[in-house]
Structure formats: C-alpha cells, structure tokens
Amino acid sequence: MNDETLSAFLDDELPPERVAELLARLAADAPGSADARERLTTLQLIKDALAGIETPDDGYTLRILARLDAHRRRPG
Description:
Number of strands: 0
Structural class: mainly alpha
Number of helices: 4
Radius of gyration: 14 Å
Low-confidence stretches: none
Mean pLDDT: 87
Shape: globular
Strand content: under 5%
Distance between the termini: 23 Å
Oligomer: single chain
C-alpha cells in the first residue's frame, strides 16, 4: 500500500472498489496493517496541518514531526 493510495483515500478520490480493498488491508488482523494505519494517520495529520487545522497534541504529533525530520536528515 503506497502513500498515493492512502492520500487518494483521504481526499475521497479512491474508487469504491479500491476503498473496500483498502479497508480490508487496514483491518487489525491484516499483515502490515499497523504500519499502514500509522502511515494513514501521519498523512491525515500532514493534510490537516497544510489546511491549517489545529489538533490537540498529546505528544503524538511531535513524535511524528521528529520522525519526519530524522527521515529528511538520512543520507541517501
């Protein structure tokens, strides 16, 4: 599952048959679902931030921003 698919889902641009497939892959017992759900949450937070939507923070957003910063700093 790639970011493009997740982003299309968040933007309500994913065709209905693909939505059903995506939801099945996000199910708690699906392989890799935890990573996919985390990525979906991250993309939603990014989308909200770009739209100027503030969210209450329990430290989760700061951890995501730290991961994004570390990812940007990786050589490669």
